[in-house]
């Protein structure tokens, strides 16, 4: 059975790139009727961040994913790693190392001074006799367990994306497997767990390629079968050659949700960061993605562009195409979750729905609802200069004519409003743009609103008349 896993380290907040990797693991498992596993790799006690595991699990759920096994925590499995490290010692593939920090630092410095491209442990402790090791352990000396990398071995594996990768073992250090605090390093724990949990496919960012030879060697020394490796391109900013950066906007997975991106829009966008169906199809439900996702279509490249404009496009698409009633629900949930005041209280559900119906075409995020609709819920601040700019000296006349017209109307709906408003143009000689922009500014305070007559209809007769009156007063001053 196919089994994939996501193995977060709770050393900080989850990045959006992690969600892309969750997505691919999840889809691959589902596509193959397999299982998706979550495992928390909390073995680095120095970089451990309190609460990060819970937040990571939560954000994975917030993006709509669930898992079939886990979460397991490596910190609760220390005995298992130790047992396996000892097994490698038995086989001569690992050894105790009692070297002090001082010695290791000096060793590194000496090697650097000699111009060695990378520093390596010199295997001093490999020479200790069994008795020496025993007496050191009895004395309670601090130790680590190191991998015993044999010289001149060819280490190779076939990556499903990057093809055959091969390195010489001379380029590898005798990696620490078990630390002096009794915790395993990532390398030991990841291999032991992927094996014991029967992970068949390891799908992760290609920044893990340099670690893979160590894992391949461990599988060999344990005598275990390798999983299939699928390394994915990492994400970068458009026009840059670096990873995502705060300077360009959100980076953490939660930030996007907080800013009002819809999980399904973000995941749709993420599907294309490293994969493409080879067709024009862009809008994908999760089900369709699971269906179409194949490893041979994963991009063989180091970095893919995280195009923030494209993400906005996807989000706008999902917002526009959501039934307004559902969109309102999403909006309310979002505002509750992130304590954002929508500013719509008092005016009733129906009214809010109407405004949402009008502005959803223009919303790129949920948050944009607020600035786009504020004048529907509160009296706008109108600038006399803006009225004058558009009315070109006719502002009072325009506003007075429309006040009169609107007062006389029995039916307040957009077709009627539009027809009658055009009739006035013919009689008075105002140009359409001149008159309608003046009206728009007078009722909304802005130059950009949904179609004017829709806006007037939603605002209602009384409110529109009040606002025209206020604007006229403003011009008297
Ligand atoms: N714990 C590692 C991480 O933080 C997992 C890497 C892997 O997938 O092997 O990403």
Automatic annotation (TrEMBL):
Top-level taxon of the source organism: Bacteria
Binding annotation for ATP: 246
Species classification: Bacteria, Katanobacteria
Organism: candidate division WWE3 bacterium RIFCSPLOWO2_12_FULL_36_10
Keywords: Aminoacyl-tRNA synthetase, ATP-binding, Cytoplasm, Ligase, Nucleotide-binding, Protein biosynthesis
Sequence ranges assigned to domain Aminoacyl-tRNA synthetase class I anticodon-binding in this UniProt record: 328-472
Motif ('HIGH' region) on chain: 8-18
Residue ranges of domain Glutamyl/glutaminyl-tRNA synthetase class Ib catalytic in the record: 1-313
Protein family according to the UniProt entry: Belongs to the class-I aminoacyl-tRNA synthetase family. Glutamate--tRNA ligase type 1 subfamily.
Enzyme Commission number(s) of this protein: 6.1.1.17
The keyword NAD appears for this protein: no
Catalytic class of the enzyme: ligase
A single GO BP: glutamyl-tRNA aminoacylation
SUPFAM superfamilies, A to Z: An anticodon-binding domain of class I aminoacyl-tRNA synthetases (SSF48163), Nucleotidylyl transferase (SSF52374)
Name used for this protein in its record: Glutamate--tRNA ligase
Gene (UniProt): gltX
